[in-house]
Amino acid sequence: MRAGPAGPRRMLCDTAVHHYDAAATTGAAFGIADDLAAEVITEGMEMPASPGSESLKPSLVELRGRGERPGYGRTGATAG
């Protein structure tokens, strides 16, 4: 665990993910605040870009891509 504010943030995000996983596995209801959900997604997207992350898990380098940008939106939808 690294020192500073990133440690508690990582723990909070990991806890949220594991709670979701447990709920999905058991069929239990799961709810999460919008701001926490956004934080979990941000943390997950920042992790591969963190300096030294490849030393912990070499396959993270592949997630960095080659300059592509994620696109969000509907695909294959017809106007109408």
Descriptive account of the structure:
The chain has a domain at 12-62. With 80 residues, it is an all-alpha fold. The mean pLDDT is 81. Helix 1 (6-26) packs across helix 2 (34-46). It contains four helices and no strands.
How many strand segments?
0
Largest sheet: none
Secondary-structure element string: HHHH
- Work out the helicity level: 40-55%
Strand content: under 5%
Number of helices: 4
Mean pLDDT: 81
Q: Evaluate the radius of gyration.
A: 16 Å
Structural class: mainly alpha
Low-confidence stretches: none
C-alpha end-to-end distance:
52 Å
List keywords for this structure.
80 residues, mainly alpha
List the helices and strands and how they pair.
Elements: H1 6-26, H2 34-46, H3 53-56, H4 60-63
Helix pairs in contact: 1-2
What would you say about this model in short?
This protein has 80 residues and is mostly helical.
